[in-house]
Every structure is written in C-alpha cells, then in structure tokens.
Design goal:
By secondary structure, the chain is an alpha+beta fold. Helices cover 17% and strands 40% of the residues. It contains twelve helices and 54 strands. The strands form eleven sheets. It has an 18-stranded mixed sheet that branches. An eight-stranded mixed sheet has the order 7-6-10-4-3-16-19-18, with no helix packed on it. A five-stranded mixed sheet has the order 21-22-23-25-24. The longest helix has 23 residues, at 462-484.
C-alpha cells in the first residue's frame, strides 16, 4: 500500500494492483511505506505530506542509481518508476520516451549538419555519433516484463503489464539500462570536459483523456510533453567532478576508489531531471528569497559567469511579483557545448559556452538569453504544456513575458546593443521589441506562413519556428492583453500559473481563464490568430476635406483605433471593430486634416505599417558609412519609407543612397571613384522582394563608368528574376538554393547579398563590353555546416546565350556544370572535391578562365582560357590548432580554429580542338583561420593559399587570400 495525501487533506490508500501483499520496492533499498505498516514511520510520512500541503505522492516518482564511467563516457543505471493510472479506464501497457535510442536515417544526419549552419557550429567533432542506449532488464517485483521498442524513430518504449491497472491504482516498474554518450554538442553528449545529460533516461509518456502522447523525437527544437514528477537520484562519479543538476544535493560520500556518491532529491515536482558534469567548473552563488541561484562557469569566463546569476535573479524577482513564486530551493545556470544559445530544463538552464564570449556591447543580449531560459522555469517547468502540438504556450508566452521584464529593466523599446555614444551614430541598432516580429513578417510576405499552433513536425526548418511560435506568438499575446485590458490579462496570467502549477495545460485552458477574467468571448481571437495563417493589415485609402476612407486589406477582423489630428490642434479618435471591408469617417465642417494614423500605439501585428499614415511618412537617415546593415528592415522604422544616405567604400571612396519600403522593395543609387581605373562608377538599381507573395525577387541595375580621360566610358546593366528554393540561407556568405533568369548588358552577375543577386560565376569570363547575355542559373545544395562543410554536396548549373540584341556585338553560348562533394574522414579531417565542366561556342571565344584563387591556383586568372574547360580540385582539410581563442576588439572578432589544407588542382581550357592544349596541374598548401564574429552570431573563414604550378616550375609559387573556402 502506498500512502498519499489528497488535495483536501484526506489520507487515501492505493493497493498495488500487481500484488497487494507485497511492498512497493525501489532501487537501493530506500525506504518506502509498505502495506500494513503502522506506527511511527507511517505517521511521520503523513506529517511530512501534510506539511507540504500538496499531494506529491500522487505524481510519478522516479528513483535512479547511476554510475558514471568517464573513460568511455558511459552510465550504468538502475531506475524505478511508481505511477498511478489517472484515467477512468484500466490500462494494460505503459509507455516511456527513450530519446537516447533515437535512430537516425541518412537524411536525418545530413540535415543535422545543414541545420548546424544556422548556429555556426559543427555539432559532431569526430563525425556523426548518436547515443548508445541499451536496456538490460525491465521488471516489477522481480518479475521480468515484456516490452517493445516502437515508433518510426525507435524512441517509444512499450512495457506490457501482466495485469490490468485499474483507475486510481498504482504500480512500480524497474528499468536497468546502460547509456553510452556520443561525442557531440547538444543536450545529450560530451565535448572536452563537459558532459551534458538531458532527457537521458526512460521518461513516462503523458496519459490523459486523449490517450498516450507518444510523439517522436524531432530533429530540432523540443518535442517534449511530460508530467511533473518527483525524483531521487544517486550518482557515483570521480571525486574531482562537479555536478549541476535538477533538485538539491542531500548528501555526498567519498569512496575508497577515488570516487564519490552524491544523492539528489527533488522536494517539489519537476518536469524532468537533467545534469551536467565537469572537472572544470567554477561556481558563484547568490540568494533570492529562499532560493539559491548557482552559476557555474569555466575559469576564463568569470565576468559572464557572475553576471548570469544576477541576470537570473532579476528575472526571478520580476516573474515572482508578476505571476507567482519560484517554488524551488535551487536554480542552476551551467555552460554546455550546446551548439545553440540555450535550453531550459527543470531547475537548470543550459547556456552555450560561446555565449560567455559575447562582446560587452551585447551584454543585454546575454541578459536576454539567460533570462529567457530562466523564465521557462515558470512556463515549462511549473506550468507544463504539450510542446509538440502547442509550442506557443511555452515559447510564445515566455517570449511575451520576457519582453515585459526587459523593458521594465531597460526602458520602453530597449535597444539590444549597448554602444558607446560615438558608435550610436555609426552603428545601426535595433530593439528587443522590433526584432520579435521581423522574422514573422519576412516569412509571411514570402508565402511561408503557417498557423502558430502547428505540430512541430510541420515546420520545414528551424527559422520558421522562431518566427511563429516565439515572435508572432509574443505579439499575439500582447494584442490579447490590449484586448482584455492590462489588469485583467495580468490577473489571468497569475490565475493560469496558480491553477496549473505542476499540471499540464492547453491553449483551451488558457482561453477559458482569459474569458472568465475578461468576461469576453475570445474564441474568435484565438481561432484567427493561432489556428489560421490569416494576416492583419489596415490602410488609409483616401483622405479629403469631408471624409477619410480606411480599408481592411488583411483577413483578420481586429478592433483598431485611428487618430485624426486636425490643424486647429483638435484630435479625433475613431474606434472601428474591423468587421467591414471599408470604414468611412465623416469629418466636421471646415475640418483641416494635419495627419491620420491607424493604430497610433502600434498594438497590432500588421503585415504592412507604411500604409497606416496620412500623409505617408518618409524617414531620412544620414549615416557615417553606408553598408549592408542599412538594407535590413529591423534596423530601420517599419512604418515609414526610409531614405538612407552616406559615404561608402566600393571600388573606391564614394557615396550611396537608398529609398526602401521595409521588407518590400529598395531603390539604390551609388557613385564611387575607382582609384585603380581612374574612373567614376555610378550604379542605379531596384529590387522588389516576395513577388506574387512568394520567395521571388525581381530587380534591375544600371551602371555608368566614366573614364576621367574620356577614353573608356562604359554603360550597361542587368535585369533578373530569382526564385529562392529554401526559406533562408544559413550564413552571411552563403548563397541560398535558387533559380534565376537574367539579362546582362556589359556586366557580370556579382552583387551584394542584401540585393539578392548573388550567383556563383567562378571561372566564367565576361567581356563586359559590347556584350548582351540571357542566362539561366540554378543552385541546389545540401551540405553543412556553413562555412566549413563536413558532408553533403552542392550543384550549380549555368546556361548563357549572348547575341546581337540591346546593342550587343558578340555572339556566343555556354553551359557550365559545377559539382562539389564534402566527405568526412576521421577526427575532424575531411575531403572536399570539386568538378567543373564548361562547354561553349563559338570555338574561338574566350568563355572560361581557370586560373586564380577559385580555379587552378598555381596560375594567374588569365593564364588558362578557352571556349571549353574542365577543372577538378581536391582539398584535404585538417585541424592544426583548435579553440585558439584569440579575440580582438572585445571579442567582436575571435580566431577560433586554425585549419590546414593540402590541395591539388588539375584542368585545362581549350579553343576548338581538345588535343591542342595540355592539362595544367598545381599543388599547394593553405591555412584557414576560422573567425567568429560576435562570438556565435556569424562565422567566416579567412583563406590563405600558396600554390605551385607543376607544369611551370620556374614560375614560382602564387599566394592567394580570400574569404571562405574556394569551394
């Protein structure tokens, strides 16, 4: 018999269904109340439960006895789970999630490397590895139980009970298993001296009225859904290891074999049990009420290690006052080789080790990251949700409440970067508030939108998760607060936290509370904003002396306020329910309008805010140096047309200006002085994004080169239509999958990433004079991680035709195919192979040039040319020095790794007769300096190659410098 205290304070008894005459035994002989037990031990247990005030014994209870073997990074574990059938029908089987048993297909493995490029890391230092999970025995009361491992990814463990477990009855299952950890970044694995263990053991699937929630283990993000449970863990590990974990340490015993045994308990229910082990950790702690905040850090990271504890404390104070108290005695923040910024677990936040290397001007961003994971103690650990189906209830809610905290701390529209005053003028900044909707607007305008409440498996790749569940979800909750009223919404959040403490909630539960607190029907709001991909957009259609016409261009009917400012100083406020297509506002006699503004407080998530104003707003910004950041919407106002003007450095010193409608289109004009060519280069261009509401862009660019001596003037341009084939590129220097149709006149197809017209035109020769070309380009790649791929491939196809049109005087055609393959070897070594074949006519035209830093590196660019070409490159890439950690300018730039390269190039170009020219060959060596920008925000490879032509030994070696690999 197990004793438990019910919520009304009554003692109930539950007989173990499998054998009512035996005790509910557990691991390690730890004491549990037995059937028929009387006397002092029973009353002590009852008094403990009464003093807790909550029925902890009614939640699942785990006990684990572990031994960690550091030599091979393995765990030997004995686990017991006691749980009750909380449903109305008997059950004959019990399900567990065994995430470490996840089986990966080849496509899974390949995509993990691609996805890793999003976070600028290679997650598998020695090639792909997964955990080795092996069940030794499953039994109850010394009787072996039948079990089956199911699910497409083999992460569901079905244990068959030898009886029907009646409603309200409890039983115990014991599981003995071994776990070998992979050498991998992430929540489960090891790298260097840090071992991370999250969701590492069989954890009960949730059973409710819908049945068992046996979701697969998704490749990215968190597919988790679990019950609050109690844990007791005993772990034996080397004496010099430190541990950061869920729960609190209750005892520590030194053993004779240079090991120690630590006992850890969770006095209050938690969602999971995670831990991190390392010999290297330092520790700083501080108190928040009855909670001890522990910040672990590596020896070189003391500044951010101490700051993490303070940032977590600030968030805890705010959430405690706003929503309810943190009910645990300890909270731990720990650095892990995670591969992405951070992740939450019960009483524990994993923070990527690279975060501790952030430049100091991103100190608020560090706060944001630590506070975000700390906030999940409220919205994940205490109040649980189905993260596979309703991720919004965890990520959207936490993102919304986190913004409240950050703006309370740093002020309304707080900026992310803390820049010295002189740099505030030089470097564009953006706010936490503006950044949350930016990604959503981008994907929505490009036809990639989907309902916020979508299954995790429906997302094609990770950026859309952040855009929808985090970004859009946060703004949706702010709109809900405005709709209900701030006080009522705050009461709803407090009530939600209180009523679902240590329970699992749903969107419907949250809706019910909001409706009760506001006394409003909010079902339409949840339906429109969370369950559809409808969009919101209001516009000032027309204004005259008698009336104002407002237009609803979106599909969502949202109440909206309009402020009309008259020239006599009077303001008129119009409130529209948004249900009609058109709103007419009649004006008083002789009214003279100064301005009209829809949504003056900026409370709505609209897809286009430039049309909210009359007259339309033009924002002008003079900048000290024009560079690509000034063409990214998040750095400029979203409710205006933006005119940016400033000096730039192009082919030489110059000036550039642009007129932009955020997210939609850009006009740009620049003029530079080309010092080497002694000419003035002027460019005028235009690009429209998301043509037809898809990932299509259309643009043109005209140029004029004025020779100062009047001898070599040149004019031309390009026109292109481009379709992106993947939601986003994962690196600043990466070219996204795409297909382009283009027209060139006296120019090549180089350009800036922000102009959307990058093509890989390596080894193609453009005369750039008296030349008109129609071209088709296709690029498709599945490799990663960027910018130093480990495996995968890239395919590039180009077809061009030059003719006598648009004043062109040259005729030719050419086709080119480029194929690159990346193959891992062992211990961070890899082979990169590249093959290119070009064929063109007429046979006497110079169409391909194979020399230079992206071809035959032992030769100059124009040394090898022809109308046809064949080229092969082979590189052997290997590590020389890892984690060098040389930082510049307060870690804005940081040299991480130095990589060595040995290469061999071979190829030839010819006119007409293949046999008339010989193959050219070269060999050489190179260095690759892996440069982290802003710690983990961006990554580049600085390339240095020295090549010797084999055919021309007297020529001497050639030295090449570039950015990222040659292929």
């Amino acid at each position: 018999m197990l004793w438990r205290m019910s919520l009304n304070g009554q003692v109930e008894d539950k007989v173990l269904a499998d054998n009512p005459t035996k005790s509910a035994t557990n691991l390690g002989g730890r004491r549990r109340v037995h059937l028929g037990t009387t006397g002092l031990s029973v009353w002590c247990s009852i008094l403990i439960l009464i003093s807790s005030g909550i029925a902890w014994a009614s939640v699942p209870q785990y006990e684990m006895d572990c031994i960690f073997y550091p030599a091979n990074h393995t765990l030997k574990v004995k686990q017991s789970v006691v749980f009750a059938n909380n449903q109305d029908l008997p059950i004959n089987e019990v399900y567990f999630h065994i995430y470490p048993n996840r089986k990966f297909s080849k496509s899974d493995k390949d995509f993990l490397f691609i996805y890793a490029g999003y976070f600028k890391i290679n997650p598998f230092p020695e090639g792909f590895q997964s955990a080795n999970f092996k069940i030794q025995r499953i039994y109850s009361l010394d009787k072996d139980l039948r079990y089956e491992i199911t699910g497409d990814d083999k992460t569901i463990l079905k244990v068959i009970l030898p009886f029907s477990l009646a409603p309200g009855r409890s039983t115990q299952i014991n599981l003995d298993f071994d776990l070998g950890l992979p050498h991998a970044y992430g929540r489960l694995g090891w790298h260097k001296n840090i071992i991370s263990l999250a969701r590492w053991y069989p954890i009960l699937s949730v059973l409710d009225q819908k049945g068992w929630h046996n979701y697969p283990y998704y490749l990215y993000h968190r597919p988790y859904f679990s019950e609050s449970s109690l844990y007791k863990l005993k772990i034996t590990l080397p004496a010099d290891f430190k541990i950061a974990s869920t729960g609190i340490q209750t005892s520590q015993t030194k053993n004779s074999d240079k090991t120690k045994t630590i006992s850890i308990d969770t006095e209050v229910p938690v969602r999971d049990f995670a831990m991190v082990l390392s010999k290297d950790f330092k520790l700083t702690s501080l108190e928040f009420g009855k909670t001890k905040i522990n910040s672990f850090y590596l020896p070189q990271d003391e500044f951010y290690g101490k700051l993490a504890a303070n940032d977590a404390k600030g968030l805890m104070e705010y959430y405690t006052n706003k929503f309810g108290p943190y009910p645990y005695k300890e909270f731990n923040i720990v650095p892990v080789y995670l591969g992405y910024a951070g992740e939450e677990f019960s009483n524990l936040a994993f923070i990527d080790t690279r975060v501790y290397k952030l430049p100091k001007f991103l100190i608020r961003y560090f706060d944001f990251l630590v506070a975000h994971e700390t906030g999940h103690q409220w919205w994940f650990n205490v109040v649980g949700s189905d993260e596979f189906n309703e991720m919004f209830m965890v990520e959207g809610l936490n993102s919304y409440t986190l913004l409240l905290y950050l703006e309370e701390k740093y002020g309304k529209d707080a900026k992310v970067m803390v820049l010295p005053k002189p740099f505030n003028w030089f470097i564009p900044n953006f706010s936490f508030r503006s950044s949350r909707a930016s990604r959503y607007i981008y994907i929505a305008k490009n036809g990639l939108d989907s309902p916020v409440l979508s299954k995790l498996s429906s997302f094609q790749e990770p950026s859309s998760i952040f855009a929808l569940a985090y970004g859009k979800g946060s703004v949706v909750l702010e709109m809900l607060s405005n709709l209900m009223g701030e006080d009522k919404f705050n009461r709803a959040l407090k009530r939600y936290f209180s009523e679902f403490m240590f329970k699992n909630s749903s969107v419907e539960d949250f809706l019910a509370i909001c409706q009760k607190e506001s006394n409003q029907d909010l079902g339409w709001f949840f339906q429109e904003w969370l369950k559809t991909k409808k969009q919101c957009d209001y516009a000032v259609k027309s204004v005259d002396s008698k009336k104002i016409i407002l237009e609803k261009r979106g599909q969502i009917n949202m109440p909206v306020k309009t402020k009309i400012k008259l020239k006599n100083g009077q303001d008129i406020i119009d409130n529209w329910d948004g249900k009609s297509q058109i709103r007419q506002i009649n004006l008083p006699e002789d009214a003279k309008i100064e301005s009209v503004q829809i949504d003056p407080e900026n409370t709505l998530l609209e897809i286009d805010k430039t049309n909210n104003l009359y007259p339309r707003r033009l924002y002008t910004k003079f900048v000290p140096l024009y560079f690509f950041a000034y063409e990214i919407p998040v750095f400029l106002p979203e409710n205006s047309y933006n005119l940016v003007l400033g000096p730039e450095i192009g082919s030489g010193p110059g000036i550039k200006t642009s007129l932009q409608k955020p997210y939609d289109n850009i006009f740009y004009l620049s003029s530079d002085y080309d010092i080497s060519g002694e000419q003035i280069n002027s460019i005028f261009g235009y690009r429209i994004a998301h043509l037809f509401g898809k990932q299509n862009s259309l643009g043109f660019e005209f140029f004029n080169h004025d020779d100062l001596e009047g001898k070599d003037d040149l004019r031309g341009g390009k026109l292109y239509l481009r379709k992106e084939l993947w939601p986003t590129a994962y690196g600043l220097g990466a070219i996204n999958d795409h297909i382009s149709l283009y027209l060139l006149r006296n120019t090549g197809f180089e350009g800036q990433a922000t102009s959307g017209n990058l093509e890989d035109i390596s080894n193609q020769h453009y005369y750039k004079k008296e030349e008109a070309i129609i071209g088709l380009a296709f690029e498709f790649a599945r490799y990663g991680p960027e910018p130093d791929p480990v495996n995968g491939f890239k395919l590039v196809l180009d077809q061009e035709l030059a003719g006598h049109f648009l004043g062109g005087r040259r005729y030719f055609w050419r086709d080119k195919i480029d194929f690159t393959k990346y193959s891992p070897l062992f211990k961070k070594q890899k082979i990169a192979t590249h093959f290119s074949f070009g064929w063109g006519g007429t046979a006497d035209k110079n169409l391909f040039e194979l020399g230079g830093y992206k071809g035959l590196r032992g030769y100059d660019l124009k040394d090898i040319k022809g109308s046809r070409s064949i080229l092969a490159n082979l590189e052997y890439r290997f590590p020389i020095k890892e984690d060098l950690g040389i930082g510049f300018l307060d870690n804005i730039f940081r040299i991480g790794d130095i990589q060595g390269v040995l290469f061999f190039d071979a190829g030839k170009a010819w006119f007409g007769d293949f046999s008339q020219t010989d193959f050219k060959k070269d060999a050489g060596a190179g260095l690759r300096f892996h440069l982290d920008i802003g710690s983990f925000l961006e990554k580049l490879v600085i390339r240095l190659d020295c090549a010797q032509a084999i055919n021309e030994p007297k020529e001497g070696p050639r030295l090449w410098i570039g950015i990222n690999h040659a292929f």
